[in-house]
Amino acid sequence: MNSNYSQISTAFQNISGPSKKTRNTSADVAQLAGVSLATVSRAFDPASKMRPQTREKVLNAAKQLKYTPDAIAKSLTSHSTNIIAIIMQDVINPFYSKILKDFSLHLQKYGKQLLYFYLDSPENLHNLIYQVLQYRVEGIIISSVTLTERVIEDFIDYGVPVVLFNRYVNIPQVQAVCCDNIQAGRECADYLFSKGYRTFAFIGGSDEALTSFDRKNGFLSRLMERGIHNIVIADSDFTYDSGYHAFEQLFQNNSAYPQAVFCASDIICAGVMDCIRFKYKLRIPEDIALVGFDDIQLATYIPYQITTFEQPTNLMIQKACDLILNPPPVPQIPNLTLFPCKLKIRTSS
Fold first, then answer.
1. Whose CA is closest to 196, among 221, 167, 171, 226?
2. What is the 3-state secondary structure (H, E, C) of the chain?
3. Torsion sign over Cα 28, 30, 33, 34
C-alpha cells in the first residue's frame, strides 16, 4: 500500500509540474549589486534621491535575479499603502480620460499609485465610499461626480484627505481645485459680442454639474450686463449625441436660430456642429458661431477646429497632488483654488 501511495504521489507531482523555486529577496539583490539593503529599498522608490549609476546597478541586479519588491509586505511594515484613490463617473469624455492618465503619471513621481473607482450612478456613491476605504487609501481625489455635503462628510469622518478636482463644496475641511469657469463664461460672452453677434444660446449639462452651471452663469451674467436678456438655454449630457439632439430641440423650439452658441464642453460642441452642418445645412461660423470648452484633441482636428477654452490641467493636477500629499493641518478658507483658462481661437467662431 505504501508503494502504491508513493507511485500516486510521484505521478501527481509530475502532473503539477516542478515545485516553485524560492523567491529571491532584497538581500540577494544587495549582495549581487554590492550595496546595502537600505540602498535596494531606496532604488525602487522614484521619489528617493540617489546617484543614477547606483540606482541602475541595483535595478540591473534585480532584473537578473527576477526580483520585484513586495508592495503588500512593505505596506504592512510601514503602515502606508502609497495608494491614492480617484473616483470618476464620466470617463467617456476625452477630457477626463486624459485627466485620469495625467494624475496616474504625476503621482508615480512621488512613489504613489492611483487606484481608480468608477461610479456608475450618483445614487451608489455612498456605497462606493466604503469600498474605497477598505483599501486603506492615503487620500481620495473626486472628479466628474455630482456631490452632496453628506457624502463628503463621510470621508472626513474617517480622517482621509479628500481633494475635489473640477468640483467644489462649501466644506472648509475639503480642498478643491478648479478652473475659473465663471470668468471663462464671461470672457466667452465678451469675445462673441466683440465679433458682432447679438443672439446667443448656451448648451450644457444640468445645474447639478457645477462646471456647466458656472460656465452658464458667467456667460449669461455678462451678456445681461451688455443688455442681452433673451438667451436660449438647452440641457445636454456631456456626450456627442446629447449635443446633437440638444441643438435639434433648440432649433425646433425657436423661430430663429442663434448667431452664436457657447457649449459647456468640446464633445457637446462637436455634436452641435455636426447637427448644424449635416442636418440643417448651415455654415459655421458664417451662419452660427460655436465656442466649446476643454480643448480636447478632437477640437484641433481639421473637420472641427473648435474655438475653445484650454484648462491649465498640469498646474491644476500639481496643486491637487500637493494638497492630497500634504494636506493643510487646519481647515483653510477659502478652500477653493481657481486657475484661469485660455481662449484658443479657431475657425468655428
1. 226
2. CHHHHHHHHHHHHHHHCCCCCCCCCHHHHHHHHCCCHHHHHHHCCCCCCCCHHHHHHHHHHHHHCCCCCCHHHHHHHHCCCCEEEEEECCCCCHHHHHHHHHHHHHHHCCCCEEEEEECCCHHHHHHHHHHHHCCCCCEEEEECCCCCHHHHHHHHHCCCCEEEECCCCCCCCCEEEEECHHHHHHHHHHHHHHCCCCCEEEEECCCCCHHHHHHHHHHHHHHHHCCCCCCEEEECCCCHHHHHHHHHHHHHHCCCCCCEEEECCHHHHHHHHHHHHHHCCCCCCCCCEEECCCCCHHHHCCCCCCEEEECCHHHHHHHHHHHHHCCCCCCCCCCEEEECCEEECCCCC
3. negative
- Cell numbers of 140, please? 481620495
| Identity at 2, one-letter amino acid code | N
Structure-block grid coordinates of residue 161? 484627505
CA torsion sign for 221, 226, 227, 229 is negative
Which residue type does 250 have? L
Min mean pLDDT across 70-74, 145-149, 189-193, 267-271 is at 70-74
Cα separation, 44 vs 58, in Å, equals: 9
| CB burial of residue 330 (10 Å; 0-12, 13-18, 19+) | exposed
How many Cβ atoms are within 10 Å of 40's Cβ, its own excluded?
24
How far is residue 341's CA from residue 330's CA, in Å, rounded to a whole number? Answer: 29
Which pLDDT tens digit goes with each residue over 255-271? 899 999 999 999 999 99
Q: How far apart are CA 43 and CA 133, in angstroms?
A: 29
Question: Which residues are 272's β-sheet partners?
Answer: none
Q: What is the pTM of this model?
A: 0.78
In this predicted structure, the answer to whether residue 146 has a pLDDT above a threshold of 90 is: no
